[in-house]
Design brief:
The longest helix is centred in the N-terminal third of the chain and has 33 residues. With 602 residues, the protein is mainly α. It contains 24 helices and 7 strands. It has 3 domains: 216 residues, Clc chloride channel, CATH 1.10.3080.10; 200 residues, Clc chloride channel; 131 residues, CBS-domain, CATH 3.10.580. It starts with a helix and ends with a strand.
């Protein structure tokens, strides 16, 4: 009841604000210009607040634990990541299932398939849970969550401005650009990120709004937090001799390989925790937290975002030998992979740059050993490595180059950055064709495309066509009792529930066969199929159809991603056929002679 009252109050506020904007009766261009400015200001303020929240939680949790001495340090370094993971798991499982992970894949889904719709409750859950995860030691970044939070804000503001639903999606890249600009203090890279990653092409119609949002958001960040680059002291590096380019090219090759290894490990652990670890879903982030706590005892700097220590490395003030750099590189790969794989909330952009910085520092040690007379600086290699691994993992080559330039205000190092990034991007693309965000979506059975020729079924989710009123059977009834329930129904299979949760499935054919065998009085819980092939609500229909065809099924239960036992609906071949018919009706119309004509034809 209270939740309904809150929703009702929000709708009243939204309706009131909408009426105000309608009364302004602004010309369309002025309306969209005001919309862009409003989104940019709101996203800039929200991004700064979110980053300060992470800093506050980190200073009171993981940083305080690492500052302790003796037994207290060991105990609290183990407890805080575990407790933080447990709290995050409970919040994700029961309140905000969309808050897990990076946030950028979710924004891509919203932009490509959901008309840009991201509820504000997702933004609130993402801000709180990701800040808790990172603040308790999870080796994840703040940039992905910032993008999702700001995308949700841009969608909410678009609704207040009475923007048509089909055009609300165009405001998501605007919010994403504002988020990246505030996260990294890099307005130019923010523009290219929105165009490369969210939109997927150089959309000229949105470019102006994206540029305005990035500039305003970055200005707010500088005004509130100071006009300085993310990493200070790294603007002194330069290319001293053309021969150094060979070493930077070698770094690019290594970055491509390391980026792919990092991505593959995250994907493997993500699948392992999700599909193979038979424990309650809410406990998985706690398990991941315990593991990273143990690693953190070995390498404390591998916990959290790590930007402070990365800045020290860039300035050459850490005095780490090669073995120590390699150990920290390995530890960061492990802590980030377990953090994300276990289902915590946070991004992979920050860890990618940290790993790249350590890889660059390690490469410098090798080059310096092979050529003791080389006039090269370790900080320069760390800087180039940051961009190269970023390019290998995220696959946004233009953004990765501009990002390094804007984060350091150093143009002298741009040629090594371009060479290393191009090579890293090429090597990574040869080893695996998908960026890490595309791989996350592929692993979840979601296929996005940016071309109009893509399969229409790939733009429709299971949630939009599934039947929500599902006929189910309790697990404590007999075969005869089940047949009495389903005797006149047309479904071929029925989910079996225990205490409201799906524990199996039994088909009409199985019931008839068991009846013929004289097993009427046996419980269906002993005879049902326990390993149920299912779909998730955000999976696209092309994936659902593929599952149905591969297993020769006529229907699939649709379950929550957070909990495979939480039944949301059922999707049948008839549901798919209806969706295809609606698509055909949108694209074609019947003429008076029953011939088919394109719907937009005269």
């Amino acid at each position: 009841m209270q939740q309904a009252d809150r929703i009702s109050r929000w709708h009243r506020v939204e309706l009131g604000a909408t009426r105000i904007f309608q009364r302004l009766r602004l010309p369309t261009n002025q309306k969209y210009f005001l919309l862009t400015i409003t989104i940019a200001v709101a996203c800039g303020l929200m991004a700064v607040s979110y980053h300060l929240l992470i800093k506050l939680i980190s200073s009171n949790l993981i940083e305080r634990a690492l500052a302790m001495q003796g037994t207290a340090r060991i105990v609290w370094t183990l407890i805080i990541p575990t407790a933080g993971g447990l709290a995050a798991g409970l919040l994700i499982y029961y309140f905000a299932p969309d808050a897990r992970g990076s946030g950028i894949p979710q924004v891509k889904i919203a932009y490509s398939m959901n008309y840009g719709n991201i509820p504000m409750r997702v933004a609130v859950g993402k801000a709180v849970i990701s800040a808790l995860c990172v603040g308790s030691g999870a080796s994840l970044g703040r940039e992905g969550p910032t993008v999702q939070i700001c995308a949700a804000i841009s969608n909410a503001i678009s609704r207040l401005f009475s923007i048509p639903r089909r055009k609300q999606m165009n405001q998501l890249p605007v919010g994403a650009a504002a988020a990246i600009a505030a996260a990294f203090n890099t307005p130019i890279a923010a523009v290219t990120f929105a165009l490369e990653e969210i939109i997927g092409d150089l959309n000229q119609k949105l470019a102006a709004s994206i540029v305005i949002a990035a500039v305003i958001s970055s200005t707010i960040e500088r005004w509130l937090l100071g006009a300085h680059p993310l990493f200070t002291g790294a603007n002194i590096y330069a290319l001293n001799h053309p021969n150094e380019l060979l070493a930077y090219a070698m770094l690019g090759v290594l970055a491509g390989v390391v980026g792919v290894v990092f991505s593959k490990l995250i994907l493997f652990l993500r699948m392992t925790f999700r599909d193979r670890l038979n424990v309650p879903g809410w406990s998985k982030p706690a398990i991941g937290g315990a593991i990273i706590g143990v690693i953190g005892l070995w390498q404390p700097h591998s916990l959290g975002i790590g930007y402070d220590f990365l800045g020290v490395v860039l300035q050459g003030q850490d005095n780490l030998v090669l073995n120590a750099v390699l150990a920290l590189l390995l530890a960061k790969i492990l802590t980030s992979s377990f953090s994300y794989g276990a289902g915590m909330s946070g991004g992979v952009l920050g860890p990618s740059m940290f790993i790249g910085g350590m890889l660059g520092a390690a490469t410098w040690h090798v080059v310096a050993y092979l050529d003791s007379d080389a006039q090269i600086v370790r900080g320069a290699f760390a800087l180039v490595g940051m961009g190269a691994v970023f390019a290998a993992v995220i696959r946004v080559p233009i953004t990765s180059i501009l990002l390094i330039f804007e984060m350091t205000y150093n143009y002298e190092i741009i040629l090594p950055v371009m060479i290393a990034n191009a090579i890293a991007y090429t090597v990574a693309s040869r080893l695996t064709p998908l960026s890490i965000y595309e791989a996350f979506l592929f692993q979840d059975g979601i296929h996005l495309g940016h071309t109009p020729k893509m399969d229409a079924l790939a733009r429709i989710t299971a949630a939009s066509v599934m039947t929500r009123e599902v006929v189910t059977l309790p697990d404590d009834i007999t075969i005869a009792e089940a047949l009495d329930v389903v005797g006149r129904l047309e479904f071929n299979g029925y989910p079996v529930l225990r205490d409201g949760l799906m524990v199996g499935l039994i088909t009409t054919g199985d019931l008839r066969r068991l009846e013929a065998e004289g097993r009427n009085h046996e419980l269906i819980s002993e005879l049902m199929t326990r390993k149920v092939v299912h779909a998730h609500p955000d999976q696209t229909l092309d994936t659902v159809v593929l599952k149905l065809a591969q297993r020769e099924l006529s229907q699939l239960p649709v379950v929550s991603r957070a909990d495979d036992t939480r039944l949301l609906g059922i999707i049948t071949l008839r549901d798919v056929a209806r969706a295809q018919a609606r698509l055909a009706a949108m694209q074609y119309s019947l003429g008076p002679d029953d011939t088919i004509h394109p719907a937009n034809a005269p």
